[in-house]
Amino acid sequence: MPEALAATRLGVLGWPVAHSRSPQMQNAALASLGLDDWRYQALPVPPELFPQTVRGLRGAGFRGANVTIPHKEAALALADLASERARAIGAANTLSFSADGAIHADNTDAPGFLAALPEIPRPGSRALVLGAGGSARAVVWALVAAGVQVAVWNRTRPRAERLAEELGARVTDDAAEADLLVNCTAVGLASSGGELKDLPVSAEYLSTYATVVDLVYRSTPTLVLAAAARAGCTTVDGAEILVQQGALSLEAWTGLQAPIEVMRAAVRDA
Ligand code: NAP
Predict the structure, then answer these.
(1) Span from the CA of 146 to the centroid of ligand 1 (angstroms)
(2) Given this model, what pLDDT does residue 192 score?
(3) Given ligand 1 and candidates 67, 159, 215, which is best to mutate, with the most ligand atoms within 8 Å of its CB?
(4) pLDDT tens-digit readout, 107-163
(5) Overall pTM > 0.85
(6) Do residues 99 and 127 make contact, with C-beta atoms less than 8 angstroms apart?
(7) Which of 78, 134, 184, 190 is 20 to 30 Å from 84 at the Cα level?
(8) What pLDDT shows up at residue 89?
(9) Which of 63, 72, 104, 264 is catalytic?
(10) How confident is the model at residue 4 (pLDDT cuts 50, 70, 90)?
């Protein structure tokens, strides 16, 4: 296959992945950039087929792929090269395939999260992160790297203890005072259920946080963001984080500046 014809395919690997808005967002961006022969598609792959599928992607014309639940750790494990932040976070959401077959792993969730905030948090400011899963690891790593003092709460405490020890945060059992609150739990995701009472922050107490971020995104405001907006907080929607992490992945694959507004509109309309 001549190189000029190769590697114009992109995708998102997940299981399940049908709910992802990345295909609409990235295809709108590719069209806007005039990359008419590029395509981005959902790639539903069960965990047992993940390594062999990824190794075959370059030969099938793929330049790169995003990775979502449940493959982010496996993606890092099989990469030949990984960025420092992907290694520190312990998970990759972006794979790039070079012509010699090498697989490079990165994590754009962390810088995408920071880019979605109204302003970069000041060193020494405080954040409370709810959750200790994959997205919490990226968020905590990004905040600690920015010099923020991070407290982590999680329903399953030992998981929070591991994360805090590895990434330089502390564990809290309640709603620690902070400037920034970030929900990295699945509470509020329609398919996962959960209610605000499953989290340590009451609707009334939310007003003590200047900015509230919810990683969860859906077409109507999430439980956390609806309550935070009522409490007068500045709110950041998970959809904006999706856009920002996707923009960084797209730029890595194409070398072109991502059309952020086009991507935002595509996510909104998806
Ligand atoms: P994950 O690794 O599966 O972690 C899930 C987290 O949610 C864990 O901390 C879990 O606590 C907690 N949790 C689940 N149900 C709960 C409940 N009823 N009450 C309290 N805690 C609960 O998932 P993830 O990758 O971190 O993703 C978390 C959320 O962020 C998902 O909704 C995902 O869609 C969203 N996300 C959005 C973006 C974006 O670009 N906007 C990127 C990544 C993820 P335990 O440890 O106790 O189980």
Answers:
(1) 23
(2) 62
(3) 215
(4) 999 999 999 999 999 999 999 999 999 899 999 999 999 999 999 999 999 999 999
(5) yes
(6) no
(7) 184
(8) 96
(9) 72
(10) very low
Domains of the chain from N-terminus onward? 3-107+240-269 (3.40.50.10860), 111-237 (3.40.50.720)
**Catalytic residue check, 197:** no
The pLDDT-based confidence of 20 (bands split at 50, 70, 90) is very high
Atom of ligand 1 nearest to the CA of 155: 47
Please identify, by atom number, the ligand 1 atom nearest to the C-alpha of residue 137.
Answer: 26
- Whole-number Å distance between alpha carbons of 138 and 167: 10
**CA distances to 88, 90, 108, 160, 257 from 85, in Å:** 5, 8, 9, 19, 22
DSSP string, 24-76: HHHHHHHHHTT-TT-EEEEEE--GGGHHHHHHHHGGGTEEEEEE-TT-HHHHH
Span from the CA of 117 to the centroid of ligand 1 (angstroms): 19
Residue 103 Cα to ligand 1 midpoint, Å, equals 27
Given a cut of 60, whether residue 5 has pLDDT beyond it is no
Ligand 1 proximity of 182 Cβ (cutoff 6 Å): no
Cβ(177)–Cβ(200) below 8 Å:
no
Residue 132 CB–ligand 1 contact under 6 Å:
yes
